[in-house]
Specification:
mainly beta; 7-stranded mixed β-sheet; 4-stranded antiparallel β-sheet; 11 strands
Length: 117
Amino acid sequence: QVQLVESGGGLVQPGGSLRLSCTGSITITSIYAVTWYRQAAGKEREMVATSFSGGTASYGDSVRGRFTISRDNAKNTVDLQMNSLKPEDTALYYCQTNGFLGSENGRGQGTQVTVSS
């Protein structure tokens, strides 16, 4: 199973931006699907964005138009650019990979994002 590590979380004011990165123990930018999820305290997990190896992406309704997911082959990261952040974006964000091989599947520990004034 691939080992994933997220980074880039922190405290930001409403309206601000953060960029999260997910990297792994293998070349994650070639994996079929890499998804950012989030889970706020007391709430269910929510799909934020998925990047597919063919170049397409999908977004959750609550973040569409504000967040952008992208793959950086040079850095071996899948990044999540988050703009116009709202307090309701506060959550633990983690990445998950789903590939054609079992060895390509994994989930990171997460990075905390807190949006507060």
